[in-house]
Amino acid sequence: MPDMQRRTFIAAAASLVAAPRLARAAALDSVKFGTDWKAEAEHGGYYQAIATGIYQRHGLKVDLQPGGPQVNHSELLAAGVLDFNVASNSFIPLNYIHENIPMVAVAAMFQKDPSVLIAHPGQGDTSFAALKGKPIMIGSDTRVTSWLFLKQKFGYTDAQIRPYAFSVAPFLADPKAIQQGYLTSEPFTIEKVGVKPVVLLLADAGYSSYGGLIATSQKLAHGKPDLVRRFVNASIEGWYSFLYGDPKPANALIKRDNPEMTDALLAYGRAKMKQYGIIDSGDAKKLGIGAMTVARWHDFFATMAKAGLYPQDMKWREAFTLDFVDKKVGMKT
Predict the structure, then answer these.
(1) What is the CATH number of the domain that holds 198?
(2) Domain final residue, candidates 183, 205, 227
(3) What's the rounded Cα separation, in Å, for the pair 85 and 144?
(4) Whether residue 16 has pLDDT greater than 50
(5) What single-letter DSSP state applies at residue 123?
(6) Shared-domain flag, residues 149 and 228
(7) Same structural domain for residues 49 and 178?
(8) What average pLDDT does the structure give for the chain?
(9) Residue 199 domain boundaries
(10) 74 falls in which pLDDT band (50, 70, 90)?
(11) Taking the alpha carbons of 55, 56, 60, 62 in that order, is the dihedral positive or negative?
(12) 119, 125 Cβ separation under 8 angstroms
């Protein structure tokens, strides 16, 4: 600005500088964003983008609304209450299309779905093939999702299914027990009592579902592509910062939103996501975090259509768009 070096104009210059700052703040686009569960490390990138001002630098004011057992953010997204939502897996965008709901996935923050099967050490249960025919505790949602993959790939049958109470107590009580789990959750609880479980990540056996997808309405994706692009890009930058920078800003906000969360569990979750390449692996190494490909989506759809979950002629390609990803945003050059 002119004459900023002159002391007589310091006060005037300060007011002129403040004015555009206030204008920029007022011009921030407000976005309502729902996650798929209570605040946890799996949402670290979004919290990091809020805590470090990344969203603000992209012209966004993000109202992050945590999920939970009594919250159906998919319905809120479809109803227009939310602008964006975290879809836990690839089934959700495909289900939207199957049910003629005009929603679309715009990014896949998790290249690997964190779903796992957990077994006790010393029982020979060290591979998915070894679990064929053995009792496995799974929930009703798993029965109609990833279990279909395990049946096709490894010959599992419904006769193996045992009820899952969403507790590790039955698992700990039976050294031959096998159960479903989430990479960053149940293994941590089990290890705390002194058992080092066998953890088998479905994604590493060929399960091609994405995880942590960002979904929005087709109306928003088509009508306000710049807004969607800014939200996706800022979220990607937030994930790079959370994974490879200092996660403390995000952790502080996560613990604020979820007082049950501990520093130990947050550190464990972040470490496991890095160790197993949940976020930054595969196509993301070449195209950037959030990457998606048509080939990957087709593989997943074909597997589930073969299992009878979707009709073969379903317009699966409408479940996602690549317009906002694969741009190498946030990657070091």
Answers:
(1) 3.40.190.10
(2) 205
(3) 22
(4) no
(5) S
(6) no
(7) no
(8) 93
(9) 115-205
(10) confident
(11) positive
(12) yes
Do 103 and 250 share a domain, yes or no? Answer: yes
SS3 of 251, please? helix
Closest CA to 38 of 76, 65, 63: 65
Report yes or no on 324 lying in a domain.
no
129-171 confidence digits (pLDDT tens): 999 999 999 999 999 999 999 999 999 999 999 999 999 999 9
127 CB neighbour count, 10 Å cutoff: 13
Number of domains forming the structure of the chain: 2
Residue 232 in this model has a pLDDT that exceeds 70:
yes
User: Do residues 230 and 314 both lie within one domain?
Assistant: yes
Contact 91, 217 (CB under 8 A): no
Q: How far apart are alpha carbons 166 and 134 in whole angstroms?
A: 19
Report the distance separating Cα 80 and Cα 55, nearest Å.
Answer: 21
Q: Are 39 and 68 in contact (CB under 8 A)?
A: no
**Pairing of the two strands 161-163 and 103-110:** unpaired
105 and 224 housed in the same domain:
yes
Radius of gyration of the chain (CA): 22
Other beta carbons within 10 Å of 262: 13
Closest by CA to 232, choosing from 220, 243, 244, is: 220
DSSP tag of 233: H
For residue 243, the tally of other CB atoms under 10 A from its CB is 18
Round to the nearest angstrom and report the end-to-end CA distance of the chain. Answer: 33
Q: How far is CA 43 from CA 49, 112, 124, 233, 235, in A?
A: 10, 15, 34, 15, 10
For residues 46 and 51, give the distance between their C-alpha atoms in angstroms, rounded to a whole number.
9
- Cβ distance 284 to 291 under 8 Å? yes
Amino acid 333: pLDDT:
58
What tokens appear for 242 in the block? 């959370």
Identify the domain boundary among 148, 182, 205. Answer: 205
